[in-house]
From TrEMBL, chains A, B, C, D:
Keyword set includes Oxidoreductase: yes
Record domain 6-phosphogluconate dehydrogenase C-terminal: where: 185-323
GO biological process, one term: pentose-phosphate shunt
UniProt organism field: Pseudomonas fluorescens
Gene3D superfamilies cross-referenced by the UniProt entry: N-(1-d-carboxylethyl)-l-norvaline Dehydrogenase, domain 2, NAD(P)-binding Rossmann-like Domain
Name this polypeptide is given: 6-phosphogluconate dehydrogenase
Pfam families (UniProt xref): 6PGD, NAD_binding_2
Alphabetically ordered keywords of this record: Gluconate utilization, Oxidoreductase
Cleaved signal peptide residues: none
Pathway stated in the Swiss-Prot or TrEMBL entry: Carbohydrate degradation; pentose phosphate pathway
Upper taxonomic lineage: Bacteria, Pseudomonadati, Pseudomonadota, Gammaproteobacteria, Pseudomonadales
Length: 326, 326, 326, 326
């Protein structure tokens, strides 16, 4: 099957590669010509701009946009929608806010264009492991694109089947689902990322306790000098917390158990934030997911105005002096 | 009435002063001779050691220990218990863990000594405003010491009476209560401090949002340049959050609205921690009180091992590079 | 001064009354004719619809809208904006989302109308205590309306002045501020409510520990039978947590220490939710404010799907059986 | 190798079985004679009391105690310590508090007895998958018992090796570690369980949002009717949150997507609580781990005293009426 791909960064480039490895043809574009050139040498049809991309595709066209959420994606889709023909489909594989999907799908439908949102998990490992995909949009269109999704997905691999699972639809077992109408794909991916934040923070807090158990601020008889690399390793084998995130943690600790290579300033992305907003809209208590987001906010500040205010109050009622940082 | 006082720091010294202002006599000791000398000049009987203190008091003696919780208090009480006579009473006015009170009360009772724990709130303002006291121990002994508590307490002042309040015991309205048996006084004070942590953190977070609303990291049209000193001031008048902590906040912001005089590293004391442990023992969910404690822990660290681990995982699955702090 | 008031519920009715007590005249409307009739008998000019209200006011008119946030306020302002003349001012005294204020102010300005947002704290007590007001909008217009704000505000009363406070503007000390341009008033009020949530939850958690300390699920020697009404009362006198919320708590506990009159299902309003969204937009960690909101969400559910999932996992890995509620 | 096993419940019985399958011999005791009888028929030497167990073992003896933490384990070890001879070793495989291990190890050492604490993860799946073990105690003794641990552990299986891992000690890769001196094994296991709580709660909150996204309390255009069983299934394939807990979740949702089989009342065990206490002792902020514990506390209550207090305050300042549950 033929697919146009816009955005050939870490994700988009590998999506093109994985599709070509599976016998599909791709027409690729990136504003960085070097990326286009590289993929052309690997068998893709490289083009120099969006009109050329549209011209190179056979109708009904399918174009996968793999760009940062927000303006880059929005602007590209706006331009594309002026070039494509009724019956064509735009696939947004990025991390778009699901309410933007809903809005866009409505607007594009008026032009006869189809819009599919694909939440894509797999990161830099996707080329090798395949991509876990959560797809929103019209069921018929999703069905038409099935050969692409099937190739991008991990497949069943050697992961055991779930006991008692009964379903006529085996797509989930092969690594992709049609989650619902436009926006549903990115909604499910958004929640996936929210959970990811929580799991990561659970490991972070647990290992923080393990690490500080050797702190010299504790009395000697209360200290343990624990081997965090070994602990991550052993938990990979038969423990309840075994997970891919733990595998990655074990990787990191094997070569740098003190994690000196990292600053401790942790970025966050839209999905973590939108998850909390969705929870609030639905009145769902999410103390763990929100705490995980807040820990990242806090990691990027040396001190907060709020903390200073605590000191100011303590000085006010108790005469406690907590002086400025030197 | 006559009272021995051990520990003449910020709290103990002013307790002696407030009692003398109200016609009581005090016998005072501190290992810092200068503190003893100062209070002697204000009318107290200064003594040079614990035996002298005990000798200077008439039986049945009452000795108020106002020292840091833990070893200083414990050791002093141990020595005192060897010097006092049956019927005497030791008052622990510090911030002792209530389980230590229970243990001590039992041990001292075997020697015929009484033990009273007094949770004392009021800080540096107590001399002027009076001390809010939560008292644990034998009811008869508490009654015997009533003249002291009555003088130390703030009294009704101009604080309006609570509607519908019906009680034969007006001590609470005058600023002190007999909370229950040994330990109950410090237990109630401990919870008081736990609540204090939560209220402080609520203000800290709220003002942090107000302050960062002027941040240049926001788009200009989303910014407000708010006057935090005026906001604290106006909330003192008729708003739902009016409180003594807000008064102190308004004090601090009036002279230093950026709070540059503070480092943002905030200490915590035993009571905040013990409150969480009590909640866990009783299976009470306390997300606010615990979050307040954790915010203080976090304020004292530049970065955490846990945060670095988040970055390590992010690098592992997504190739995100979060480099070391320079 | 003359003011039109739309919405004569708990807040709007008393605002009219407090203004009239201070020599102002009011023209009042409510879709409930009985409310209009009542206030007419107290001296207001009652009208039957919005055109009549506009007709009864002298230009430049000032109309205070005191309705539930969202559609009721929005629709009323839309109608009003078609009736008023350039130079007139609409005051939104409700709990509008501050971004709606910004939008509205821009739209109304195109018609030559002024828009003022007033965050109003004081609840059912405002008639007697006065209203604490946080005002957003054009400075000149706020100045023009000053006689109204001055009368509605509590004034300095017997609340002591803040030490070190230096300001040419004494409005904060009298209970109202001009916080900034349109939206700033409701923004500050929103944060006020966020803080209020946090303080309330701090008290709730602390008293929950005090209450459960007498629980029969604890071993007898660990129990204290604490008098929560006395504890609330004593903390009002000289303690660090003294506050209006504590006064209200003491009121409630004086007549119903077990709080049997309440279900434990707690509503939340927009402001608590918007506060968290503002914090997320500004990357401010707000664990206490968010926990307070989530506690209310949780209070309204008997069990959550999430909790059931925990049980399902526990059954999965450990064979733990947690059966359905009867 | 020969091992005595006391406690033949879910864990102890299967430990005996897995050892026998691997060629070891066991001498087994449980106060429930039926359990002893069952294992005897599977090849174990069943005994009727502790003296018989000790008599049936060759010196130096090794006795694995697999009982509930607290009194059952403590009492059994006390009796055992009176029966064993210098050089013998007691293994506590349960969920003992690590400070109890430290105390016990000291006490037993005075009698010449060795004490080994083994944190054992694997639950009902251990017989088949093997047990992940975290071991504390004297290195030589742990070495002597290695044949047992080697047989109980899962081994490398088909789990890929960690990149860059360099270690002379391959025990972690085979599923067990010598974590440190007495107590270190249970300490590491305790933190494991703390992390487990956090991960579980992250999934619970995320799926709660997914589930309530179909709630009729949302406007129709904001709803998605998501298939939670498919979502859990697809995330098992290539997503970042893939984990054993997710596998179990998929199991549960495959047969009961509404989770109607569960009440939503979730138990907690000592380890979750002790993890928070350890964090507090070490001043580590653990918002996620504590929130997870508190969610379980909350799940077991229909309403809290704290929630009622919130309603009482809301009534106090705003006249909001939140009536008793019917």
């Amino acid at each position: 099957m033929q697919l146009g791909i816009i955005g050939l960064g870490r994700m988009g480039g590998n999506i093109a590669r994985r599709l070509m490895l599976n016998g599909h043809t791709t027409v690729v574009y990136d504003r960085n010509a070097a990326f286009v050139e590289n993929l052309s040498q690997e068998g893709a049809t490289g083009v120099a701009d969006l009109p050329a991309l549209v011209a190179a595709l056979e109708a009904p066209r399918a174009v996968w946009v793999m760009l940062p959420a927000g303006a880059p994606t929005e602007d590209t889709i706006t331009v594309l929608s002026g070039l494509l023909e009724p019956g064509d489909v735009i696939i947004d594989g990025g991390n778009t806010y699901y309410k933007d999907d809903i809005r866009r799908a409505h607007a594009l439908l008026e032009k006869g264009l189809n819009y599919i949102d694909v939440g894509t998990s797999g990161g830099v490992w996707g080329l090798e492991r395949g991509y876990c995909m959560m797809i929103g949009g019209d069921a018929e269109v999703v069905k038409r694109l099935d050969p692409l999704f099937d190739s991008l997905a991990p497949g069943m691999g050697n992961i055991p089947r779930t006991r008692d699972r009964k379903s006529d639809d085996d797509r989930a077992e092969r690594g992709y689902i049609h989650a619902g109408p436009a926006g549903a794909g990115h909604f499910v991916k958004m929640i996936h990322n929210g959970i990811e934040y929580g799991m990561m923070q659970a490991f972070a807090e647990g290992f923080d306790i393990l690490k500080t158990k050797s702190s010299e601020s504790l009395p000697p008889e209360q200290r343990f000098d624990l081997n965090v690399a070994d602990i991550a390793e052993v938990w990979r084998r038969g423990s309840v917390v075994s997970s891919w995130l733990l595998d990655l943690t074990a990787d990191a600790l094997a070569s740098d158990p003190k994690l000196d290579g990292f600053s401790g300033e942790v970025a966050d992305s839209g999905e973590g934030r939108w998850t909390i907003e969705a929870a609030i809209e639905q009145a769902v208590p999410v103390p763990v997911l929100s705490s995980s987001l807040f820990a990242r906010f806090r990691s990027r500040q040396q001190s907060t105005y709020g903390d200073k205010m605590l000191s100011a109050m303590r000085f006010g009622f108790g005469g406690h002096v907590e002086t400025p940082k030197k």
